[in-house]
Design a protein that fits this description.
There is one protein chain. The chain is an alpha/beta fold. The chain has 2 domains: 2-107 and 257-332 and 384-389, FAD/NAD(P)-binding domain (3-Layer(bba) Sandwich), CATH 3.50.50; 110-255, FAD/NAD(P)-binding domain, CATH 3.50.50. 27% of the residues lie in helices and 26% in strands. The protein has helices at residues 13-25, 46-50, 117-120, 132-144, 164-178, 200-212, 259-262, 303-321, 369-386, and strands at residues 2-9, 31-34, 39-41, 60-62, 72-74, 78-82, 87-90, 96-103, 108-109, 126-127, 148-154, 185-191, 216-219, 222-227, 232-237, 240-245, 248-250, 255-256, 288-290, 334-341, 344-350. The strands form 6 sheets. Strands 1, 2, 5, 6, 7, 8 and 19 form a 7-stranded mixed beta sheet that branches. Strands 10-17-11-12-13 form a 5-stranded parallel beta sheet. Helix 1 crosses helix 8 (303-321). The radius of gyration is 21 Å and the shape is globular. The two termini are 35 Å apart. The structure holds flavin-adenine dinucleotide. Flavin-adenine dinucleotide is lined by residues 9-15, 34-37, 43-44, 46-47, 77-78, 104-106, 129-130, 160-161, 164, 258, 260, 292-294, 301-304, 306, 337.
């Protein structure tokens, strides 16, 4: 077995943010990051890749460039946890022992939960911004659309970036309008949920926009199957099955805690790593912390939330090492730049209680170019050069 003082599982948004902060604050610590992927992705920009505004390559950089100097990168996948023995099990290498563990392996996309989808996604008008492999095809579908039915789905499960299923719909609708196809197109939002957005203030603004832009909203519609040959989608609405035909369909896949976490002693009943919602410390294993999409933190799962969680996790992990009380607390902050068109963003920001907590001195429920510029040009720079370097 190998041993490191701190072991971080996952080198995504949360893993690298935590690693960089530990590097800056406690350079003497022996830290290892377990991450199987050679590539680090900036997923928030996938919305604008699908919308045809950016090439997908700009969202991918070598993982190696973001492993802090002095930290060990174990390029392997975790398969299990033995928290009593303070040990993690890897797919290929020998087990790794730790003094403290940070679990941030993201959320799992369950394509196969929709019958017929796994083999068909990325072909025949079935696209998704939720994966690097399929995101470029979204723009192909939008730009080659010639009228007919464009369907945008959202599943019944928790997902990352709750706004993403509709952002791409607004972009597509605008594209169809600009190309003079709008009268020949039905654009529909088929959402398993009951409303267009969770936070009241933005929900009202989005509902108004949906009426203005003639979006057909189908709530309580849970996509369960596709017939790619006939281009028919099958939805469950309560007890009933409803079929809709489509010319293109953007699918947001059902998501869950990664299976290797859900099947481990770290999980709560729903499968997420069970942590205190303020300190991010595990409720049963004091030397374990978790943040980001795989944690049980009851916030909207976004990179923006991770930005506020990472400093809390790091402060409390170091306090715990030093035998000090855990004083840092996360307030549930999350944010979602709702792209409503090219050059238009409604920047939703809110806390655990769904209260808006806006950063700017104007009404953020109104879409603006300045907030679009922030999302398209500002935030990616802040991400690569600030957040992933432990500086913000
Ligand atoms: P990730 O960044 O996904 O990282 C998880 C890491 O764990 C990955 O590197 C993965 O390879 C690794 N891993 C997986 N399995 C294992 C294993 N077995 N062992 C070790 N490592 C493993 N957020 C925003 O803030 N704003 C937005 O506008 C926004 N838009 C989005 C649009 C789309 C289309 C998508 C898909 C996401 C969007 N997000 C947005 C969400 C944001 O990307 C995530 O919430 C964020 O990346 C979560 O960070 P994380 O570290 O928890 O997970």
């Amino acid at each position: 077995t190998r041993h490191h003082q701190v072991v971080i599982i996952g080198g995504g948004t949360a893993g690298i943010s935590v690693a960089a902060r530990l590097h800056n604050l406690a350079p003497e610590l022996d830290v290892a990051i377990v991450e199987p992927s050679q590539v680090h992705y900036y997923q928030p920009l996938w919305t604008l890749v699908g919308g045809g505004e950016f090439a997908r390559d700009v969202t991918a950089r070598p993982e190696a460039d973001y492993i802090p100097s002095g930290h060990t990168w174990i390029c392997d996948a975790v398969e299990g946890f033995e928290p009593e023995q303070k040990r993690v099990l890897l797919r290929e290498g020998e087990p790794v022992e730790y003094e403290q563990l940070v679990v941030c392996a993201g959320i799992q996309l369950n394509w196969s939960a929709i019958e017929g989808l796994e083999d068909a996604i990325g072909t025949g008008g079935l696209c998704s911004n939720y994966s690097y492999d399929t995101v470029a095809y979204t723009w192909e579908c939008i730009s080659s659309f010639r009228g007919g039915r464009a369907v945008f789905t959202a599943p019944a499960t928790a997902i990352k970036c709750g706004g993403a299923p509709q952002k791409i719909m607004w972009l597509a609708e605008e594209n169809f309008r600009r190309r003079g196809l709008r009268d020949d197109a039905e654009v529909s939002f088929a959402n398993a949920g009951a409303r267009i957005f969770g936070v009241h203030k933005y929900r009202i603004a989005l509902e108004r926009l949906a009426v203005e832009r003639k979006i057909v909203t189908r709530f309580g519609h849970n996509l369960v199957g596709v017939d790619p040959g006939k281009k028919i989608a099958r939805f469950l609405t309560g007890e009933e099955t409803v079929e809709l035909d489509y010319d293109m369909m953007h699918v947001t896949p059902p998501q869950s805690a990664p299976s290797f976490i859900a099947d481990s002693p770290l999980a709560d009943e729903a499968g997420w790593v069970e942590v205190d919602k303020y300190s991010t410390q595990h409720t049963r294993f004091a030397d374990v912390f978790s943040l980001g999409d795989c944690s049980s933190l009851p916030c909207a799962k976004t990179g923006a939330a991770v930005r506020k969680q990472a400093p809390v996790t790091v402060a409390n992990l170091l306090a715990h090492r030093g035998g000090q009380p855990l004083e840092a607390a996360y307030d549930g902050y999350s944010s979602c730049p709702l792209v409503t068109g090219v050059g238009q963003v409604m920047l939703a920001e809110f806390d655990y209680d769904g209260n808006p907590c806006e950063s700017f001195p104007f009404d953020q429920a109104r879409p603006r170019y300045s907030m679009y510029a922030l999302k398209a040009y500002g935030l990616p720079e802040l991400y690569w050069n600030g957040m992933l370097r432990g500086r913000m």
